[in-house]
Amino acid sequence: MSRVEAIEDILRRAFAPIHLTIADESDRHRGHAGAAGGGGHFRATIVSESFRGLNAVARQRAVYQALGDAMRGEIHALSLQTLTPEEWQRKRG
């Protein structure tokens, strides 16, 4: 299982998203000090009812908590977009 698949599996179990995309952007960070330790750089969009009533910081904390140890090893950097289904619909127009 790739790192992206492992992250996706964790996030699907934790948030039951209606939309989830994860991109591995590690190749853009070659030579970066964090990349030397083997941790990857990822970008994720998660659309879930679980985020309803949570501000941006609480949503990020929930994602970091769900990813647990991966945030201290496999993942060096994670850019997040966390949305409710209504926010996702508005964003898409």
Q: What would you note in describing this structure?
A:
This protein has 93 residues and is α+β, with helices and mostly antiparallel strands. The chain has a single domain, classed as BolA-like (GMP Synthetase, Chain A, domain 3, 2-Layer Sandwich), CATH 3.30.300. It contains four helices and three strands; from the N terminus they run αβαβαβα. The protein has a three-stranded mixed sheet. It is globular, with a radius of gyration of 13 Å. The termini are far apart. The model has no long low-confidence stretch (mean pLDDT 89).
In short:
By secondary structure, this protein is an alpha+beta fold.
Secondary structure layout plus pairing:
Blueprint lengths: L2 H13 L3 E6 L8 H4 L3 E8 L8 H12 L7 E9 L1 H8 L1
Parallel strand pairs: 2-3
Antiparallel strand pairs: 1-2
The separation of the N and C termini measures 35 Å
Query: Describe the biggest sheet?
Result: 3 strands, mixed
Structural class based on helices, strands and sheet pairing: alpha+beta
Give start-end ranges of low-pLDDT stretches.
none
CATH topology heading: GMP Synthetase, Chain A, domain 3
Total beta-strand segments: 3
Q: Using the 3D structure, state the CATH architecture.
A: 2-Layer Sandwich
User: Roughly what percent helix?
Assistant: 25-40%
**Radius of gyration based on Cα positions:** 13 Å
Spatially, the strands of the biggest sheet line up as 1-2-3
CATH class: Alpha Beta
Provide the domain count. Answer: 1
SSE string, helices as H and strands as E: HEHEHEH
Mean pLDDT across every amino acid position? 89
